Amino acid sequence: MAIWSNNYHGSMNEKAFEFNSSIDADARLVYADIAGSIAHAKMLGKTEIIPREEADALVNELGKMNDELQDGDLTIDFSEEDIHSFLEAELTRRLGAIGKKVHTGRSRNDQVATALKLYSVSALEHLSSLTANVALALSEKAEQHLETIMPGYTHLQRAQPITFAHHLMAYTEMFLRDKSRLDDAKERVLHYMPLGSAALATTTLPLDRAFTAEALGFKDFSRNSLDGVSDRDHSLEMLADMSIIMVHISRLAEEVILWSSQEFGFVKIRDTFSSGSSIMPQKKNPDIAELLRGKSGRVFGDLMGVLTLMKGLPLAYNKDMQEEKELLFEAIDTVTFCLEILPAMLNDMDVIEEAMLTASQKGYLNATDCADYLVEKGIPFRDAYQITGNILKECEEQNLTLENFPLEMYKKHSDAFDETIYKKVDLKECVIRRNVAGGPAPERVKEHIEAVKTKLEDYQIIS
């Protein structure tokens, strides 16, 4: 029987009850709901809204239920309407009339909102830890390739020489920003506690909301009861943050897919993270990277689903909001899985340094360095740009590179050239000289890696 049932209500259609039920989705809120109920029961006893001994009995029994659920000695009854109904029914079965008092001064509306926030805090902490692990895994891989020359790209065209370490550390920065957003979101989740808002207009009972908020780790309680039960901004923010994480995962996965193709040949994905073809014996497909790329669409859809759900709802609570939990939970599960598998995939990825260097030697990636050489000789950059362009045209016509372009031919374009040009256009030297903060010089990238490791020294890579 639903906790809202009484003689005023007739029986609900069986299919309608099943349609209305949410316990399959919200069962994961069980520990958060118990924590909220314990704090609420303590407050009821403190304020003597119910006798202290009855409040103590509720707190003790809720604690036992928490332990039993963790140990597997208590199982959730999925025939109940939702997890909140199950817990109240179980308390009543154990404590009789005292169990029925746990819901004094609250509604499922503020109860659900509070449990969801408590669960979200835990999820955000876990996701933050996982993003830190990804950033560390990228840094560890980068540390192995401080001098591995590869082409840097713009417009997917070879542009300038960089190192593989520098490229990986760009993604490290992305995941560090993701971690920062998750940490910020957690602080906003804890800004205020909905509990005590009741259905929409608080209650006539003398609740001590400040006591409950402090007991649950909130900074304050909601200052408007309508907003308290109808606000889902924290879910939207989490979904937006997780969508950005999936953008970064998808971009990295896309590059791994490109790099592992025969056209690039920059990396090799081991069999641990690839699959074969059912018809072509030679095929090794980057399925895990492709799934990481593809899962982004699922999380984006969850965000759009909740945005669409919330955009037209009048105050205060509406049953539509029940759908929000499932979308949020699905996104959390998807992002968690992706973040867990990514470090292991990176660890099992072999880097083909020779292929990266060979690619860097094509496409005149050192052309800007040639122009900069002339600038250092006092030639205006725009003129240096034109001179270098003329040299490149001649290189292309004669199948030469800037490294083997004869000195007498250099001098034909400008008397400023001498034998020192060859060191200037050496690919490794091109990278080493980019010794600007944030640049690809091995010295700078090493500093970057060390700074990241120091920042994340409390984390350990999970592979």
From TrEMBL:
PROSITE patterns: FUMARATE_LYASES. GO terms for molecular function: argininosuccinate lyase activity. Keywords: Amino-acid biosynthesis, Arginine biosynthesis, Cytoplasm, Lyase. One of its GO terms (cellular component) is cytosol. Residues 364-431 form the Argininosuccinate lyase C-terminal domain. Its main location: cytoplasm. Coiled coil: none annotated. It catalyses: 2-(N(omega)-L-arginino)succinate = fumarate + L-arginine. It is found in: Cytoplasm. Signal peptide: none annotated. Its EC number is 4.3.2.1. Belongs to the lyase 1 family. Argininosuccinate lyase subfamily. This is Argininosuccinate lyase. It comes from Trichococcus shcherbakoviae. The gene is argH.
